[in-house]
Design goal:
The complex is a heterodimer of chains A (about 120) and B (about 110). Chain A is about 0% helix and about 55% strand. With about 120 residues, chain A is an all-beta fold. In chain A, strand 7 and strand 8 form a beta hairpin. The termini of chain A are far apart. Chain B is mainly β and about 110 residues long. In chain B, the strands form two sheets. In chain B, strands 2, 4, 5, 9, 10 and 11 form a six-stranded mixed sheet that branches. Classes of the chains: A mainly beta (about 120), B mainly beta (about 110).
Chain lengths: ~120, ~110
C-alpha cells in the first residue's frame, strides 16, 4: 500500500524564493496534518485539515506560510518569500478519520534548505 | 509550546537490555501515543493508550499512563540494534479536536 507521499524530498533554494511542498495523503484518509521539525523547536504542528477544511492554523508561523487542500488527495504548503530560518524538515501526515483515537501516518518528509 | 516532555533526552544501552523512557504532559488528555523515528525518516506510530487505560502491551512494548501525575512511560524489553531511533510521545488534549502535540523525543542508541 502506498503511504503518504511527499515531494520534493529535498529542496534547496535561495532566500526570497517561493517554495511549494506537496503532499498526497493515504487514500480514504479524512485528516491531513503539516508539521515542521527542527533541532531547536522539535516537531511543531503548522496546520491541519479535516475533510479538506482547515481546522487549526494557529501553528503557521507567519503570513509567509500558506496551505491549501483543494481535494481529498492533495495538499500544498507554500512559503513566500522563504527565509533561512525556514530551513527544516517538513512532514505531512494523514489520519483515517477526524476522531480523537486515531494514529497519524507520516510521510518521509521534505528537507528544505534556504540559503 | 510542547505539551509532552520526554525524559531522558538520550539513552544508550546494550542489546538485550530494557529501555525505559518517560513522558510528562500538562493538560488533560483524550489519549497518549508513542511514535518512533528512524534517522532521516518520518514518524511511525507504535501504540495508543486512552485516558481511561493504565497499561497497554504490544509485542516488546509496554506503555503505562498515570493521569493523576500526567505522565506516561514506554518500556522496550530485550532491545535490539534495530530499536535505535528517537521515540516521541504525543498527546491528544481534551478540547483540541484530533490534533496531537509532540514532545521533544528521547534518542535511544542500542549497541550490539
Amino acid at each position: 500500500d502506498a503511504g503518504v507521499i511527499q515531494s520534493p524530498r529535498h529542496e534547496v533554494t535561495e532566500m526570497g524564493q517561493e517554495v511549494t511542498l506537496r503532499c498526497k495523503p493515504i487514500s480514504g484518509h479524512n485528516s491531513l496534518f503539516w508539521y515542521r521539525q527542527t533541532m531547536m523547536r522539535g516537531l511543531e504542528l503548522l496546520i491541519y485539515f479535516n475533510n479538506n477544511v482547515p481546522i487549526d492554523d494557529s501553528g503557521m508561523p507567519e503570513d509567509r506560510f500558506s496551505a491549501k487542500m483543494p481535494n481529498a488527495s492533495f495538499s500544498t504548503l507554500k512559503i513566500q518569500p522563504s527565509e533561512p530560518r525556514d530551513s527544516a524538515v517538513y512532514f505531512c501526515a494523514s489520519s483515517p478519520t477526524s476522531g480523537r483515537d486515531n494514529e497519524q501516518f507520516f510521510g518521509p518528509g521534505t528537507r528544505l534548505t534556504v540559503l | 509550546s510542547q505539551q509532552g516532555e520526554e525524559d531522558p533526552q538520550a539513552l544508550s544501552i546494550q542489546e538485550g537490555e530494557n529501555a525505559t523512557m518517560n513522558c510528562s504532559y500538562k493538560t488533560s488528555i483524550n489519549n497518549l501515543q508513542w511514535y518512533r523515528q528512524n534517522s532521516g525518516r518520518g514518524l511511525v506510530h507504535l501504540i495508543l493508550i486512552r485516558s481511561n487505560e493504565r497499561e497497554k502491551h504490544s509485542g516488546r512494548l509496554r506503555v503505562t499512563l498515570d493521569t493523576s501525575k500526567k505522565s506516561s512511560s514506554l518500556l522496550i524489553t530485550a532491545s535490539r540494534a534495530a530499536d535505535t531511533a528517537s521515540y516521541f510521545c504525543a498527546t491528544s488534549p481534551i478540547g483540541a479536536g484530533n490534533k496531537l502535540t509532540f514532545g521533544g523525543g528521547t534518542r535511544v542508541l542500542v549497541k550490539p
